[in-house]
Amino acid sequence: MRAKQVRRGSTLVMVGIMLVAFVGVGAIAADIGRFYVVTSEVQTAADAAAIEGARKLMMTPGSTPGAIVAADVVPWVAANQRANMTPLSASAGDVEMLFYTPGANGGTLGSPLAGERPNAVRVTLQSTPKGFFAQLLGNTGTRLLKRPATAWVASLGSNCVRPMSFPYDSLYRRVMLTAPNPPNTGLLDMAKFTTFTSQATSQRMFTFLGQNSGTIAKPNDGEWTGFNYTGNKGKPSFVDGFEPCTSVSPWYLKKLNFDAGDGVLLPGQAGNYVTWANSAVPYGTGKGQNKGSPTGICDFRDPSNTADCYDPSSSTGGPGITINSAWGENVSQTKTVFKYVGEFQLLCYFQGTGDTCSKLTSPNNKGYPPGTVVGYVRAIKSRMITLGDSLGNFTSGQQTIVLVR
Q1: Dihedral of CA 154/160/161/163: which sign?
Q2: Which residues, including other chains, have CB under 8 Å from residue 122's CB and lie 6 or more apart?
């Protein structure tokens, strides 16, 4: 009779063997999870670096800004970006200048063509972490985790920009509470602009005289400057700029840029802009010395306050219509630098010195020369995107940065 074999402890041995396997699998999973975390950190850093490069691209003139952009991005990454608890680094070769065209399936991205200025920046960053548990198992190698990001300097469409450039120095002085330094006045501090626009409308009112009005005794914030969108077309182009947004004209082609390439000043016609505006602004029969236009933007319906501008499309409510206007700084007789395009609430427009504006207090509510505009600032369009805005590569005085890849 065969003796019974004793198997005590065999289960413990099997559990020990399986435990090693489970710990190994768990360690591998932990390392893989850590690699995903580091990859995410590298991607976030690359996104931020691409945005920084695009910001520098916006501020760098010329058709070959690559070296200047790279010289900004490389130290910026070293000073500000980390992954795997280690500072990241970049070289000039990691910063690429590209041209992005929006479209179906994510658009197209490639090198700029000859003579084409780049409009996008791609930054590629990398990290080489080691697996913590893998090292315990004898694997001391690293994993190369490389992630690219591309930021596009997109032009922000602004339909129905009226062909009147308000003096930027007046806006700068009111927002920044300091004297401007033309012709190189800087951009606005957006925190201060937010504070400015949070004030009552009476505190952000402006009175702009018509172009070439000269010096007058009444309070004012300078003169607006008339411009044409393209070329020396005089009155037809200027008057066309006052068409309403519902016009069949291709407003997406009427964009403004910073160097006034699409905002042509005509010094020889400077004395005519107010006369042209007086024929384009009034709606219908108008008041005063003009009969108005069916595409006019102001319905002067108040017989007592003849400068009050009412919305022609509405028969209710008080005076005031919202327009998009340029804020420019004249640098010569033929050139203005458009700093911003913004929403402006147009309350009154004087066709003549006999008109009266209900939004001004007596005795300064009348007696202003023809072409005088009264209203308040609502927003700076170059700093916000709305559902009605379009993004593209057209010429524009408004730009925004968009991550596209």
Answers
A1: positive
A2: 50, 95, 96, 98, 109, 148, 149, 150, 405
CA distance 236 to 249: 13
State residue 282 phi and psi, 5-degree precision. Answer: -65, 140
- First vs last Cα of the chain: how many Å apart? 79
- Helix, strand, or coil (residue 243): coil
Model confidence pLDDT, tens digit, residues 51-92: 999 989 887 877 789 999 999 999 999 999 999 889 999 999
- Of residues 370, 358, 346, the one with CA closest to residue 305: 358
Torsion of CA 75, 77, 80, 81, to 10 degrees: -160
CA–CA separation, 176 and 279 (whole Å): 36
DSSP state of 308: B
8 A C-beta contact, residue 229 and residue 263: yes
pLDDT at 10 over 70: no
Write out pLDDT tens, residues 343-357. 889 999 999 999 999
Omega cis (within 30) before 363: yes
* pLDDT tens for each residue of 258-304: 333 456 677 677 788 999 999 889 987 544 444 577 888 899 999 99
Instruction: Report domain extents, the chain.
Output: 10-156, 161-389
Helix and strand numbers (H, E) in the chain are 7, 14
